[in-house]
Amino acid sequence: MKQLVIVGFGHMGQAFYKGLRAQSNLKITALDRTPGKAKSQDCQLAQLEDLMKANYVLLAVKPQALPDLDIAQLIGPETIIISMLAGTKIKTLKKYFTHNHIVRCMPNLPVKHQAGVIGWYSENLNNSLDQEITEIFNCLGESIQLTNEKLVDKITLISGSGPGYLAYIQTLMKQEAIKLGFTQKQAETIARTTFFGSAICLKETNSELLTAQVSSKGGVTEAIIETMQANGFDQRFSESLQVGFERMTELDKNA
């Protein structure tokens, strides 16, 4: 049985573990400064020998923690290093890890339900190792092997951060529902179920068509969307993603 050690067991490390434990044949252990995190998820704590024997080591710490992550000498030379550190390039990772195989990936939080998106890139995996990584990531949702490393940063803005700003929009919907007179519980149900139901619809169609289906000519939805567009919503959204991209650049510079 092949072994995976997850280094850093925060939200994304736990999501990766939850998504893989039911879908893969990997032995998964976790290494974290707070051992109780792994125990709370029934994940076995990694020992030093686990790092040396691991086929894969997943870096799931915050990018700012990379300079203090002194484990490279404990990891076997043939181990594949998989990094989900936002904005941290392979060139930067090589300052800390001399291993031959380094994979950059960007999963999103829904991987814990096998419903995530995982964009990934590596410079020097052979076909066999490519297949191994693909099979692991396919257990978590939709795996997309990217053709260049810049796309890892770009997919971070869309799918990596996406659940966060989609949830933010749902919060705005809930707040508006409360203003309109619904109770807190009713508002939560309305906003959450609208998102969930819309996601199901989008499995059968695309976003443009769904917008058209809901937006009757001269109707309420059309008026709302036209007002959002007239107030610069599309441009503000694009500008917000650009700020996110600039933040990723800063994270790599500080590593």
Describe the structure.
It is a single chain. With 255 residues, the protein is α/β, with parallel strands linked by helices. The chain has 11 helices and 8 strands. The protein has helices at residues 11-21, 35-40, 48-53, 90-93, 127-138, 150-160, 162-179, 184-202, 207-214, 220-230, 233-253, and strands at residues 3-7, 27-31, 44-45, 56-59, 80-83, 102-106, 116-122, 141-145. Helix 1 (11-21) links the parallel strand 1 and strand 2.
Largest sheet: 8 strands, mixed
CATH fold node name of the largest domain? Rossmann fold
Q: Could you tell me the mean pLDDT?
A: 94
Number of domains: 2
Topology:
Layout: E1 3-7, H1 11-21, E2 27-31, H2 35-40, E3 44-45, H3 48-53, E4 56-59, E5 80-83, H4 90-93, E6 102-106, E7 116-122, H5 127-138, E8 141-145, H6 150-160, H7 162-179, H8 184-202, H9 207-214, H10 220-230, H11 233-253
Parallel strand pairs: 1-2, 1-4, 2-3, 4-5, 5-6, 7-8
Antiparallel strand pairs: 6-7
Helix pairs in contact: 6-11, 7-8
Offer a quick outline of the entry.
By secondary structure, the protein is an alpha/beta fold.
Keywords:
alpha/beta; 11 helices; single chain; 255 residues; Rossmann fold; 2 domains
